[in-house]
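DATA SHEET
Item: assembly model
Revision: 1
Owner: S.N.
Input lines:
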Amino acid sequence: MSILIEDVLLDGERKNIRVEGNRIASIDSKEGADTVIDGKGKAAIPGLINTHTHAAMSLFRGYADDMLLQDWLSSRILPLERNLKPEHIYWGTKLACLEMIKSGTTCFNDMYFFMEETAKAAEEMGIRAVLSEGFVDLLNPDVGKERFQSSISLVESIRSMKNDRIVPALGPHAIYTVSPESLQMVSEYAEKENLLVHFHLSETEDEVSACVELHGKRPVLFLEEIGFLNPNLVAAHSVWLNKEEIGLLKKHDVKISHNPVSNMKLAVGKAIPYTEMKEAGLLVSLGTDGCASNNALDMLETIKFAALYQKAYTGDPTVLPANEAVAMATENGARALGIDAGKIAPGKLADIVLIDLTAPQLHPGHNLVSDLAYAVNGSCVDTVICDGRILMQDRKVEGEDEILERANEAALDLVGKV
Amino acid sequence: MSILIEDVLLDGERKNIRVEGNRIASIDSKEGADTVIDGKGKAAIPGLINTHTHAAMSLFRGYADDMLLQDWLSSRILPLERNLKPEHIYWGTKLACLEMIKSGTTCFNDMYFFMEETAKAAEEMGIRAVLSEGFVDLLNPDVGKERFQSSISLVESIRSMKNDRIVPALGPHAIYTVSPESLQMVSEYAEKENLLVHFHLSETEDEVSACVELHGKRPVLFLEEIGFLNPNLVAAHSVWLNKEEIGLLKKHDVKISHNPVSNMKLAVGKAIPYTEMKEAGLLVSLGTDGCASNNALDMLETIKFAALYQKAYTGDPTVLPANEAVAMATENGARALGIDAGKIAPGKLADIVLIDLTAPQLHPGHNLVSDLAYAVNGSCVDTVICDGRILMQDRKVEGEDEILERANEAALDLVGKV
């Protein structure tokens, strides 16, 4: 199967992008193809990569806002989560995938429950996904040993799908919900099996204080001590870090997933220390977090929030310029997740998004990178190709109506049980 | 002329909204109408009101980002502005109106140059506008007297249009660009002629320090002293205020226009003191500012930024909840500009926006107000009615292609001359 995108704007020039199978074959193709897409009036950008979310939480969108983090979690989110069933996860993930595709995301890194359902939903929707079970032992290593079996089962189950698009990973939740013994167990298994580890790191100041109280040192120092810092670690949030911790994260090549919208909405107290991270050479990618704390999955919106929150927080409008913010959501996301995408170049995976240049926000069009960062949102995405397959064209995604209806039913069912 | 919007979601119930002429006649109509709109799958909300922008700066979108405010202004914006001609303003405003209509804005408060062109463009686009010339005397009252004639001419010229939708106002730029004598002159004329006064207040800390140095007191105290504080004053930004100043603004019933996106992008150093303003009973509305410092005119995006920036800045996720943020962009905007709109109720001006509920971000739909504040952006707007006239239906606006083309040409012409 081949696709030819004719006469599309790519890095300021008109190109013919040719896709063969699931890879980009050429960007100056003169050959025909099985499917030809007219790229006139469109720009091609790499598919956006969301490095931290909980897709099925789309069912919680708008259910609990404007609350203190602890209230929000204990009085609203946890009661719903206790009633989650596989079918909720399946339809919640389909709704999330629909929203992601419609806003140009071609790959997401997810940690949640009943992840076989997430895998099935993502496989059917055609999107790329890195999936881990949210692993929690409530600081009891014995519970950890038992529960870890289901994380391993998920890895095996995803591997048995034999679909390169759906990648298994491990998801130890956080330092305050997983015992050090279990963190070590996860880390060792990840190294042996060559798996990514998806983790929440230093989202709040309380989390840091609790760690200092319990272990006598800050989270990153403690995690280094137990051997948890590795190049395969994707650390979501990473807000409350000092310079020493940033240095350690770099030393072990840990990847950061920054979630500016969630951080602002839950008021975690500050913005990530981006300038220090950049100076240290840390890889910073972007995530939306789940819909309960965002409440959207629009990565183009997230790019704008990332850039503007840094400027506002530091008082320096030159920090995190447009090109760096866009790179976070493309190249850096791909590197964080070890996906051979994030750029449109021959040999790369064919994860391509076409932007409709007729949107007024893209005019007069002095600078496309600036417009992507500051002027548009996901609605300017016209076409999405993932792994060489067209998932959306003219903003139409297959099965949309059924997904909306079934996700609504799932949410009603869930809320009705609380 | 009458319009009937059948079976549309309004405040949680299915309603039939009937428009007669330029007013809402009924919300439970059983009569027919000249034009019937099927409201199924849609929700009706008041048209959004943007209380601070410089519409024609849409031509500058993406031309200068990520710069220090002073650099940005002196090396990029002012050189362009020196070359502005009436036709640039006309097409820049048309582009801005197109973007505003497509994102649900039905009324904007604008201050800029060649405002007869803005008036003409807004009149043709069918949108409601409050228009003032940006008045600057560089602290020389003699220059002020001379230049003020063109502000008066604009008022007369707009009045001669005899279009209630286009409202003249006065636009003294700021305390650092207009002499106290001229501010007094503007204020007296505004009172006599019953005009709104559109003003930039305390956007940056430097502005406050300079005022203290020059006049021995903070801006709001000085403005009260010279009699500039009045109920007809719309004070854009209003970031750097202390408690005493907030009290004085309330005492004189001054209206605030908060511009969170611009404040964050230009890194003005802090968020507005919203809680103190709310406690004092100040009216706070929302603006986008111009496209050179935002770079979009999407009020639904601005609502999200307003709510999240307050939470992030104060560290309190309960501050500025969804309903207050949405009210800022609707009711409060209408009250700030003295427009009898901002609510959907019999007798109000027929400025109505229909939201397409099939967008995935509006599912599962636990809470429409939350979804409007946090989940959607302007792209979920399907239909826009302003002053009883349909400006957009099915996201189509008349003359769209020509506007994009001519605005691009205008921008190229402008940049080419620098």
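QC remark: Chain B touches chain A through 73 residues (CB under 8 Å).
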